[in-house]
Amino acid sequence: TGGAKKAHRFRPGTVALREIRRYQKSTELLIRKMPFQRLVREIAQEFKTDLRFQSSAVMALQEAAEEYLVGLFEDTNLCAIHAKRVTIQPKDLLLARRIRGEKQDDIKRPERPSQWK
């Protein structure tokens, strides 16, 4: 009858909102550096082989990419809220890009690497 105390649980969404506020306040990069650098090199390889990058150039690309993504997801969230939803969906992302004037054919679906199969 005097059993173990039940663990405290926050209501659904509370922790998510706390994380959102924390990351919105922070200025540090959120994508890990090495995976981003590998992605940059992989994409650059398609245009010209034997390219070399200064570390500051990769950092500048990462800063710009993260800034773009943060803004895009802010707009995507506004599209979801406008549709009276709290969860973003792919159609919100497409609408945000369309409103921004970004071409839809800019999105190329990458081929799945052999290690994913």
UniProtKB/TrEMBL annotation:
Gene3D superfamilies noted in UniProt: Histone, subunit A
Domain Core Histone H2A/H2B/H3, residue spans: 12-99
InterPro entries, sorted: H2A/H2B/H3, Histone-fold, Histone_H3/CENP-A
Entry keyword annotation includes Acetylation: yes
Keywords annotated in UniProt: Acetylation, Chromosome, DNA-binding, Methylation, Nucleosome core, Phosphoprotein
Any one GO molecular function term: DNA binding
CDD domains: HFD_H3
Compartment list: Chromosome
Predominant place of localization: nucleus
Similarity comment: family membership: Belongs to the histone H3 family.
Protein name: Histone H3
